[in-house]
Amino acid sequence: MATVYIHIGAPKTATSTLQSVFASNYDTFLKNGVLYPRNFRNGDAHHLLVCDLIEKYQGIRMPDVWYGQRPRGESWAALIAEIASHGSNIDSVILSSELFFGQSTSIRSMLDDVVTHLHGHEVRIIAYLRRQDQLYSSFYNQDVKGVRQWSGSAYEFYQTHQIFQQDYHSLLAVWSEVFGSKHIIVRPFEPEQWVNGDIVQDFCVAANTVPLRSGYKDSNLSLGINQLYIKRCLNKVGFDKKDNEEILRVLRKVGPEAPAEAGSYVHRALYRHYRTEWLRANQALSADYLNGEELFKKPLPPAEDIRVHKINKLSVAGFIKSMYHNFVAGKYPAYRTLFARATLLAMAEQNLWHVLEAADRERILSWV
Description:
This protein is 49% helix and 7% strand. By secondary structure, it is an alpha/beta fold. A five-stranded parallel sheet has the order 2-3-1-4-5. The longest helix is centred in the C-terminal third of the chain and has 22 residues, at 268-289. The radius of gyration is 23 Å and the shape is globular. The N and C termini lie far apart (63 Å). 36% of the residues are buried.
């Protein structure tokens, strides 16, 4: 029976890059006895496997866009049939979906179901973990920037997002109980620790498979601190998710800003509290999965050394003026009402009514 490697993420660890490389090398993999199943992929990933489990055990109907024309509840049967169709020609199977990561509701029942479906196969779990402070800041920026359109604070994001409801060690503990700790492969999201500095090569070594390469570079640039605030205002007033990329383009044109550098979106006291929890989890991971070796070579910075991101009122004022002049000039007419509403919200929250003359404020109100 083939060994099944389940790559569970975590998010913000080049999962899309890995999935893209695996999918595009389907034939190369297959010639070397490795199957990256393709009959039920969503894009390049195996998200439907998780969607079916969520629907079955959490009672949540997953979006139609995930399924397209494919029936619900049949992905695992399709997987087993695809594996069986290759018979003894394959030695290993790679499954990949970051949707696995962070699941907590009914997770034990979900994993027991996985065991039932994969009966007879040896199962190994591969998880890439990003240093927690980096994951937090990157994921928050991404969720404000992206189609999830998060509009709350960074504190609210951490307190409510499922990925932060368990620390790394607690999350992997359930997987360890089901599949055995010796079958949990933990790798750091640190290029300095990857094979030849390449995450795809590193994964291939972890999965004991034919080497591939990616030349991975993180091209998903964060929004700047003040751009992020304006995007939150846009998210609060609301717009269609299908317009998100175009809204980002307009935002960057109207209010250009360098991407946010490494830092914290919460104050130092709260960061200090989080860091204590993260350090404890990392020590437990080291003991249980890494033979006492440190997971991250670059340690979590102490609160005193971090950059705390703060909204700059002068920059927001500059955006307000730029927005007004762009729309007076007739640019981006389709989005004038949306940006006018977000601008009024920013002026109210930041007490920046004085930035524009009374007549100009009245004009913005007329656009709304």
